[in-house]
Prior knowledge:
With 242 residues, the chain is an alpha+beta fold. Helices cover 18% and strands 37% of the residues. The chain contains three helices and 13 strands, in the order βαβββββββββααβββ. Strands 1, 2, 3, 4, 5, 6, 7, 8, 9, 10, 11, 12 and 13 form a 13-stranded mixed sheet that branches. The longest helix has 22 residues, at 148-169. The protein is globular.
Amino acid sequence: xxxxxxxxxxxxxxxxxxxxxxxxxxxxxxxxxxxxxxxxxxxxxxxxxxxxxxxxxxxxxxxxxxxxxxxxxxxxxxxxxxxxxxxxxxxxxxxxxxxxxxxxxxxxxxxxxxxxxxxxxxxxxxxxxxxxxxxxxxxxxxxxxxxxxxxxxxxxxxxxxxxxxxxxxxxxxxxxxxxxxxxxxxxxxxxxxxxxxxxxxxxxxxxxxxxxxxxxxxxxxxxxxxxxxxxxxxxxxxxxxx
Length: 242
């Protein structure tokens, strides 16, 4: 297990990770990439977000009692959002189309000066920034070359989700649109991920996430990548809302 947490915090962090649903090894295990982030959203309590990646799937879940999760079928290019409270599965299968950057949006991705940070598993961290029309939207510190399967799967997931987001843009009045939000979620959702494994990411609204642990060979149950057979599946419309 590779870790970027301090020795003092490692025991507490690992105890929290082990509480995440489905973490314990059981019969029928398979190897998966594991990424665990501490997420802090403005106005909300911090929580842990776990990403598990195999050649076929990406699964995301959180440290809560709900038991819901997101499953991305990498081959079929379909996203499933599982809601145990409603016993339902939202099926997101957006049509791929144009995500052309608006002419008025001047987007820039730039590498900042070298930072004074130790190497992570041999990778020297880099600091990158996304700006839109001169406004800083998002920044990240990445470790280039680490966890390539996990990073690639998460990048593909965000790109696919962006095709769903773009369908709703036409229904949002211009005065309620935000250039940074559009860039991060629709037009360039994976731009900073292309630079490497995110160690810490933050934006102008006070949202941030920090990598607290990762592993390229975590044994997990194959059941983690199966959908509940008795849940109702609800397709999400890809038609823009009027």
